[in-house]
Design a protein that fits this description.
Length: about 375
């Protein structure tokens, strides 16, 4: 008999007291004046955010919000896996596995789980209901400790297939952004007899196209390609380090909550809706800090970085997916349909004028509506 253990987040008071103490004792670096965000997170901005984190932010409020969802842990392939499991009140709901990425967590799903599981209560068609399973990636959140090397996206997808099997779900969908935009299709490739469809957003693939291919693109696609090129040239330092020497930044991330916050918040600045000036203009400040606090309290700034290393050394072959695939494109996504069609059987394509890489946080209404629309004919 498969064994699951009920799980409830209950951070000890001394851990929160230690966090505030470390925040108050931060040793701030010197800065180069008048450089804005061009060299990284500005000190003035970060000091104000840390002051709020220290004096005003309340982890217990957000801990209670997370605990409102049923959670469990189980062991798969030697690795502890934590997951939210929220069943719909609708008996014919379609199971759906949601997958986050880095530097995200299950915190991303706070505003989408309700509408996905209970559309009737949110003014939508109950026929679009899902049973939601939202795991924490190995080495992320409460899926700790990272038991051993080798947890690349392919192995994670196989673990998700096992998790859904254990939960008794033989037919289900997959949805994900960032790392989830790779893991979800990989799950479809591994278990096509069980996965009815894959819906993705927020991929960070940098397409390589020849001059003739670029010339054939539309204006919007060329603009996304240009934006992707800027990210590739200026915004991938984190990836280069995490994919080659993840253990080296681990010491700083695990010892300094401000260092951990800066490491994360930079990506929220760069990857959220380009129309929003600051991260908290796109995502609520308390939600940003809840995500960062989760990384800090679980000590996963280090272990979460290792997935980049695993992906770099993985020998997983790229295979076309046989599963129907839907893609939601938000303004910060470098998505080009003709490129994605090389690996995916795309049957649904949507483009939006607001939101960004963290769509579940930035535009939950759009993401939920598009997920419903994609899966509607596949149920």
């Amino acid at each position: 008999m498969t064994r699951f253990s009920d799980f409830r987040i209950d951070v000890p008071p001394h851990a929160l007291a230690d966090l505030r103490d470390r925040l108050r004792r931060t040793r701030w670096p010197t800065t180069t004046p008048d450089t804005g965000w061009s060299r990284g997170v500005p000190a003035d901005y970060l000091k104000d955010l840390v002051r709020y984190w220290t004096d005003d932010y309340d982890w217990r409020t957000w801990e209670a919000r997370l605990n409102a969802f049923p959670q469990s842990v189980t062991d798969i392939d030697g690795q502890r896996i934590h997951f939210l499991h929220v069943r719909s009140p609708e008996p014919d709901a379609l199971p759906l596995v949601l997958t986050h990425g880095w530097p995200g967590s299950v915190v991303e799903f706070l505003d989408v789980i309700g509408p996905l599981t209970d559309p009737r209560a949110h003014g939508a068609d109950p026929a679009d209901a899902f049973h939601v399973v939202a795991p924490s990636l190995p080495g992320f959140g409460f899926s700790v400790p990272l038991a051993e090397p080798g947890w690349d996206y392919g192995r994670t997808a196989r673990a998700w297939a096992e998790l859904m099997e254990r939960l008794g779900y033989r037919r289900y969908g997959a949805q994900g952004g960032d790392s989830g935009s790779v893991i979800s299709p990989e799950l479809g490739r591994y278990a096509p007899e069980h996965v009815v469809g894959v819906h993705i957003h927020g991929g960070l693939d940098f397409p390589s196209l020849g001059p003739a291919e670029v010339a054939a693109l539309g204006a919007d696609e060329r603009a996304r390609l240009a934006a992707a090129d800027v990210i590739r040239r200026e915004g991938t330092g984190y990836s280069a380090l995490q994919s080659t020497r993840p253990q080296t930044p681990a010491y700083a991330l695990n010892d300094s909550p401000v260092g951990q916050l800066a490491w994360i918040i930079e990506k929220f600045k760069e990857w959220t809706d380009p129309a929003r000036e600051l991260p908290e203009d796109a995502v609520d400040r308390d939600v940003l800090l809840t995500n960062a606090t989760l990384y800090w309290l679980t000590g996963t700034g280090a272990s979460s970085a290792h997935v980049y290393y695993e992906e770099r050394v993985a020998s997983r072959p790229v295979r076309p997916s046989p599963v129907p695939t839907g893609v939601a494109v938000f303004p910060s996504d470098p998505a080009v349909r003709s490129v994605l069609e090389r690996e995916h059987r795309i049957v649904h394509w949507s483009e939006f004028s607001r939101g960004g890489h963290f769509a579940a946080l930035e535009a939950p209404d759009l993401l939920v509506a598009d997920t419903r629309a994609f899966f509607r004919p596949l149920r």
